[in-house]
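Dear all,

This email documents one entry for the complex benchmark we are building for the journal club exercise. For each entry we list the sequence lines for every component of the assembly. Then comes the predicted three-dimensional structure of the complex as a token string, followed by one or two observations. Please use this as the template for your own entries, and keep the labels exactly as they appear.
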Amino acid sequence: MSIPDPLREEDLIRSRQRGRARVMAVLLGAFVILVFAISIAKIRAGMPH
Amino acid sequence: MTPVTPLLPPAHWRDFLALTKPRVMTLVVFTGLCGMLAAPVGVHPVIGFTAILCIALGAGAAGALNQWYESDIDAVMRRTQKRPLPDGRMDRQAALHFGVGLGAFSVLFMGFAVNAVAAAILTVSILFYVLVYTVWLKRRTPQNIVIGGAAGAFPPLIGWAAATGDIALLPVLLFLFVFLWTPPHFWALALFMKSDYAAAGVPMLPVVSGERTTRTQIGLYTIPMAAVAILPWPLGLTGAIYGIAAVLLTGWFALLAVRVAKRTTHADDAMKPEKALFKYSILYLFVMFGALVVDRWFA
């Protein structure tokens, strides 16, 4: 059984965290734009909520 | 002494995506979209997009929770052992949190942005897939996919409800159609994946009752499925485009099903007719729903 290299493991963890943070940022940005678009659509259609 | 669970590095975002079963989601999204487009009222594109997004997220949540619960049997089956959980690329708790979070988000967002009826049906579909199919039926009875098939039949109903805020006869028939399509579709798969299901201890019909019974059941279930597939035309709910497409496509499905039903296999059988039925059944569902939408456009 090979002994895990702590430095390599930390690099892997950091790169995964960076990747997930980027995806989360894109998704949150898209969510904000979508909520804005929904609000505009409902206001134009005269929907109560 | 309790076994020590090894600490895993945080999962890659692609593994979370894989957890949502994107390929299954395609069919769910497509039938949901067609259910929405077949509705007699138009829906604002943004609201329509949101509804389809919520259906996709709900289906993804159900898929994630299914993989969380079934990681032990996924590890035994060749078809599923490279999934994130059995492959050791993800922590089980992360999968559970992701599935519950995504499911709750999809339902709440559907309720706020679209309407309560669509959100309610989406809730039922997620709970049905996770609790009724995955937890209760799958490991207990060979009727698992007969009853559990209802979970995959909800999307056209949700799409219709998202557009109209209501339920009518046509989406109910679409629900019944997908419900009755599921057994021949899955049993065709189960026939050529029998050894995998047997190894995992999943009581699929070919494992419990044998190939002969399964082949007969495929033939029998094709009869009501064909009737429900064509029924919207004579009832006047669709036009001739859907009607003619339904007759031709369903006729071909029935031919393939009869070929499977009548066959007896020998050792090292390549199971070509079963694989052909399985592949065609996917294409069949796509084209039938596509024909419904085209029919509506020309109505």
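Observations: Residues 40 and 46 of chain A are 10 Å apart (CA to CA). Chain A touches chain B through 17 residues (CB under 8 Å).
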